[in-house]
Write a structure and sequence with these properties.
This protein has eleven helices and twelve strands. The protein has about 325 residues and is an alpha+beta fold. It has one domain. A hairpin with a 5-residue loop joins strand 2 and strand 3. Helix 8 crosses helix 9. The longest helix has 23 residues. It starts with about 30 loop residues before the first strand and ends with a helix.
Length: about 325
C-alpha cells in the first residue's frame, strides 16, 4: 500500500513539493487549479479572483505542484469532466459521484493552498489565520486523505466522499455563464459552467446528500437562478450544521475489492454518542439565504417575514415544487411588495 502524504506536517503547501505525494518537484512541474479547458471556455485566465485577505490574483496564476508521473491521471479526470460538461447537466449528473467530487476537491484544495501560502508571507498578518484554526484543520485532514483518490485507483468503501449535486439553470433568465464560490470553513464549493451548476459538500461522506434527497429530486428541472441560489443556501447551511467529522482509515485492497484498486479508504463516524447535525435554526438559515439572494434584492426581513417558514422559491405556498416561471413571477411580486 502507498504511504499517504500529510502536507499538514510542517505545513508544506508551497510549489516545491507535489501536492499529492510530497516528493520534490521542479518549478515547471505544476498544473492549473482551474483546468485550461475551463479557463478557455469562460475566458478566465486574466480574470481576478480575491483571497481572504482581499489580495488579488488571477485564475491562470493559481497552480498546484504535481509530480510528472501523475500528470496523465489528472488530465484523464479533466478530460472526463470536460466531455461531460459538453453534454450539459444530465451528462455531468451521470458521472460517478466520486469522480466529480475529486474534480471539485482538486480545485477547492488549490484555493485552500493558495490562501495558506499567501498567509505565510512575512508581511501578511491575516485577521483569521487558517493555519491556527484547529477546527478547520481537523476537517481538512480527512478531506485531504479522501483526495488521495486522485493519486492512485481508490475505492471509497461503501460511502461517497462528499455530497455532489448538479443543477440545471433555465437559460431564459439572465445569469453569468461562469460563477465560482466556496466556503473554506465548511468545505463547500459551487461552480457554474454554462447552464450547469455543480454544488458540493466535500467532507460530509454523503450525509447532506441523504438529508437533501427529496429537495434534490424536486430540483431535477430547469431552475431560475434564484432557485439555484436557494438550493445552494440549503447545502451551505447544512454543511455549517454538520458536526460529525469522519475518521478515514486507509487499508490494502482485498480479494473482494474492485479489480485494479491500489488503495481502499474506510470512513467511520461516531453516530452513537455524537449527533450528525446540529439543530436547524430558521434565523441562521435566513442569514445564509440573504447572502445568496443579494442579486435579487431580497432582504432578511422579507425572507423571515414568517419566522416559522422562511421564504422559498423552490416551493410554493403549499410546499409543492414550482417552476422557474412561477419563481420569476414570485420575485416580481416581491419586488413591488
Amino acid at each position: 500500500m502507498i504511504t499517504l502524504y500529510d502536507p499538514f506536517e510542517g505545513m508544506q503547501f508551497g510549489l516545491g513539493r507535489c501536492f499529492l505525494t510530497g516528493q520534490p518537484v521542479g518549478p515547471n512541474d505544476t498544473i492549473p487549479v482551474f483546468a485550461e479547458w475551463v479557463q478557455s471556455a469562460y475566458a478566465l485566465a486574466e480574470r481576478p479572483i480575491y483571497l481572504l485577505d482581499q489580495s488579488q490574483t488571477t485564475y491562470a496564476t493559481l497552480r498546484l505542484p504535481l509530480a510528472p508521473a501523475l500528470r496523465s491521471r489528472l488530465q484523464a479526470l479533466e478530460d472526463e469532466v470536460q466531455q461531460a460538461a459538453l453534454g450539459g447537466p444530465a451528462a455531468l449528473r451521470a458521472m460517478p459521484p466520486a469522480r466529480l467530487w475529486q474534480w471539485a476537491g482538486k480545485m477547492f484544495y488549490g484555493i485552500f493552498a493558495a490562501e495558506l501560502v499567501q498567509q505565510q508571507q512575512p508581511l501578511i498578518k491575516p485577521q483569521y489565520p487558517l493555519a491556527e484554526n484547529v477546527q478547520l484543520l481537523r476537517k481538512f485532514r480527512p478531506f485531504y486523505q479522501l483526495l488521495q483518490g486522485l493519486r492512485v485507483p481508490t475505492d471509497y468503501a461503501d460511502f461517497v466522499p462528499g455530497s455532489v449535486f448538479v443543477l440545471e439553470v433555465d437559460d431564459h433568465y439572465e445569469a453569468p455563464v461562469f460563477e465560482y464560490d466556496d466556503d473554506l470553513n465548511t468545505l463547500v464549493f459551487s461552480i457554474k459552467l454554462g447552464n450547469a451548476v455543480v454544488v458540493a459538500s466535500l467532507i460530509d461522506i454523503g450525509f447532506i446528500g441523504q438529508a437533501m434527497r427529496q429537495v434534490y429530486a424536486d430540483a431535477q428541472r430547469p431552475l431560475h437562478p434564484a432557485q439555484v441560489a436557494e438550493f445552494k443556501a440549503r447545502v451551505y447551511y447544512g454543511a455549517y450544521l454538520l458536526s460529525a467529522i469522519p475518521d478515514i482509515y486507509p487499508r490494502r485492497p482485498g480479494p473482494l475489492d474492485p479489480p485494479g484498486t491500489e488503495l481502499v479508504l474506510d470512513a467511520l463516524v461516531d453516530d452513537v454518542t455524537a449527533t450528525i447535525f446540529n439543530p436547524w435554526e430558521n434565523l441562521s438559515y435566513g442569514h445564509v439565504l440573504t447572502g445568496l439572494w443579494v442579486r435579487w434584492g431580497l432582504t432578511e426581513e422579507v425572507i423571515l417575514r414568517n419566522p416559522f417558514q422562511p421564504l422559498s422559491l423552490l416551493y410554493d405556498a403549499t410546499s409543492q415544487p414550482q417552476s422557474a416561471e412561477d419563481a420569476a413571477e414570485q420575485l416580481a411580486v416581491l419586488a413591488y411588495g
